[in-house]
Specification:
single chain, 140 residues, mainly alpha, 2 domains, 56% helix, globular, membrane, transmembrane helix, TgpA_N
């Protein structure tokens, strides 16, 4: 026999969100050896805090559960616009068609934005000898 699930209290929901955020942030640090610099981690942390924190805030004010995921997507879009919109957004946070074009250019990669952009040097020499980064001679 399966017991009925009880809804989480506000404190339990907030604790679950906090632990989820902590786990996401700790798990992303495992990518540190693969990506040089730490700016990527901070950008990911801002987006994670916006989405998970926004969802926790929405649940704490008793937003209908069916509205929380779409509103979390809006929070993600606003955070990504703030970080990567490149000044194309209204008040740096409200995306415009130019912002979506900037996102498209980011998704296409550096070769689409500039023919002179270079890929970072690879830290794994055996794999790099077979990869597209093998010919990169830029200094670190």
């Amino acid at each position: 026999m399966v017991p009925d699930r009880l809804p989480l209290s506000r404190a339990q929901s907030l604790a679950l969100s906090a632990v989820s955020l902590l786990l996401v942030l700790v798990a992303t640090t495992a990518l540190g050896p693969l990506i040089s610099g730490s700016a990527w981690w901070w950008a990911g942390a801002v987006v994670a805090v916006a989405v998970i924190g926004g969802g926790a805030a929405l649940r704490s004010i008793r937003t209908p559960p069916s509205l929380v995921p779409p509103l979390e997507l809006v929070a993600a879009l606003l955070a990504l616009t703030l970080l990567f919109g490149g000044g194309t957004a209204l008040a740096f946070i409200v995306p415009t068609p130019d912002t979506l074009a900037a996102f498209g250019a980011l998704a296409e990669g550096p070769s689409a934005r500039s023919s002179s952009s270079r890929f970072p040097r690879c830290r794994f020499r055996r794999w790099c000898s077979r990869s597209r980064w093998a010919s990169d001679s830029s200094p670190r």
